[in-house]
Model the fold of this input.
Amino acid sequence: MRNMPTEPAPRVLEDFEGAWGITRHITHADGTTAEFTGTAQWAHDPGGLIYREIGKLQMAQGPAFQAERQYLWRPGLNVYFDDGRFFHKVPECGGDATHWCDPDTYHVTYDFSRWPHFTAIWKVSGPKKSYTMRSEYKRC
Done:
């Protein structure tokens, strides 16, 4: 009898707390690419966790430069921009979520099947943006 694949265990907010290494590959519709390497930190704050990433972004042509971003992660795996606007809900067992930012659509697929190594693949489409961004996280 073959082993059947099992669905990843549901993730909860506390599972993400701590330091993670992150690598990200971005491919634009025109074929240009970029690479990001750095760290992501989910740290306790009064409403849940605050997510901060910092690292080096290397565009296809040109020097690398420091890049960073921040989000608010709240119970139920609800993610907000740092100004408090809702961004998306992370599916607890992995899967898809969508965010519409007029006029572009952001679609993400989370894969937790190799926890504590996970991926988030964003496909962004619209008249202003068109790219795929694959981020891989590994616990430090």
User: Anything to note?
Assistant: The first strand starts at residue 18 and ends at 28. The chain has a mean pLDDT of 94.
